[in-house]
């Protein structure tokens, strides 16, 4: 019986993944680097700095560290502009209901995200109270597919990895969950999340009972 649920943030709880894409796209365009939605899949679950390095790799470009830092800061500025109007209305369909039902059943919940903006986003969504622990990009040193963020999440709940189920929209996050000995539910397209133990399009009409049954 699983006791803990670990949630990625961007693309699972809220559709900020498209704002990350739009912000990176704007910078890539400025730098004359072609950057498609398909390329963007490689950035999901990946830290801000590493994301920019991947974009530079796509453009076959090199840059000094200080300049990389400058662009990452600018990207975050553009991204935060998009988040200005973020509110409870932006929580993805079914997420709140799913969290409430799972917690009522005794599950403990943690957020496991590479984002350094996670606490700010949860506050904007008024979801801070829905998680017993938050592990974000400020608390980890190794990015997904390393399991650090989820192992820390499980530990913060007082649980072992094998007691937890991870919910992820990124292929790197599914790998991280498995590396931590956890079962993984993919949120999105089965083609992209082929390694997940079970794939759902989103939380709408999804019950914790269905997940328990499919994941056991
Ligand atoms: C998440 C997203 C990535 C993003 C990373 C860092 O994992 O999926 O696309 O790059 O967080 O986010 P941040 O808000 O710190 O730039
Ligand atoms: Mg994500």
From TrEMBL:
Pfam families reported in the protein's UniProt record: Hydrolase
Residue ranges that the Swiss-Prot or TrEMBL entry lists as coiled coil: none
Statement: the UniProt record of this protein carries the keyword Heme: no
UniProt-listed PANTHER family: 6-PHOSPHOGLUCONATE PHOSPHATASE (PTHR46193), HEXITOL PHOSPHATASE B (PTHR46193:SF18)
EC number: 5.4.2.6
Record gene name: pgmB
Catalyzed reactions per annotation: beta-D-glucose 1-phosphate = beta-D-glucose 6-phosphate
Family from the record: Belongs to the HAD-like hydrolase superfamily. CbbY/CbbZ/Gph/YieH family.
Required cofactor(s): Mg(2+)
Enzyme class label: isomerase
Protein name listed in UniProt: Beta-phosphoglucomutase
GO MF term set: beta-phosphoglucomutase activity
Entry keyword set: Carbohydrate metabolism, Isomerase, Magnesium, Metal-binding, Phosphoprotein
Organism, scientific name: Blautia acetigignens
InterPro entries: B-phosphoglucomutase_hydrolase (IPR010976), Beta-PGM (IPR010972), Beta-PGM-like (IPR051600), HAD-like_sf (IPR036412), HAD-SF_hydro_IA (IPR006439), HAD_sf (IPR023214), PGP-like_dom2 (IPR023198)
Database matches in CDD domains: HAD_BPGM
């Amino acid at each position: 019986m699983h006791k803990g649920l670990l949630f990625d943030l961007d693309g699972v709880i809220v559709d900020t993944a498209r704002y990350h894409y739009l912000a990176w796209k704007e910078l890539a365009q400025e730098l004359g680097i072609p950057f498609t939605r398909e390329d963007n899949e490689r950035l999901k679950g990946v830290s801000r700095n590493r994301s920019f390095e991947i974009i530079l790799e796509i453009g076959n470009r090199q840059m000094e560290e200080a300049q990389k830092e400058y662009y990452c800061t600018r990207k975050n500025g553009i991204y935060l502009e998009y988040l200005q109007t973020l509110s409870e209305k932006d929580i993805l369909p079914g997420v709140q209901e799913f969290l409430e039902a799972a917690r009522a059943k005794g599950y403990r919940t943690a957020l496991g995200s590479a984002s350094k903006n996670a606490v700010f986003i949860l506050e904007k969504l008024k979801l801070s109270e829905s998680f017993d622990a938050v592990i974000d990009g400020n608390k980890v040193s190794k990015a997904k597919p390393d399991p650090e963020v989820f192992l820390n999440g499980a530990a913060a709940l007082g649980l072992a990895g094998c007691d937890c189920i991870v919910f992820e929209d990124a292929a790197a996050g599914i790998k991280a969950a498995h590396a931590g000995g956890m079962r993984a539910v993919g949120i999105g397209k089965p083609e992209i999340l082929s390694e997940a133990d079970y794939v759902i399009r989103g939380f709408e009409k999804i019950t914790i009972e269905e997940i328990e049954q499919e994941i056991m």
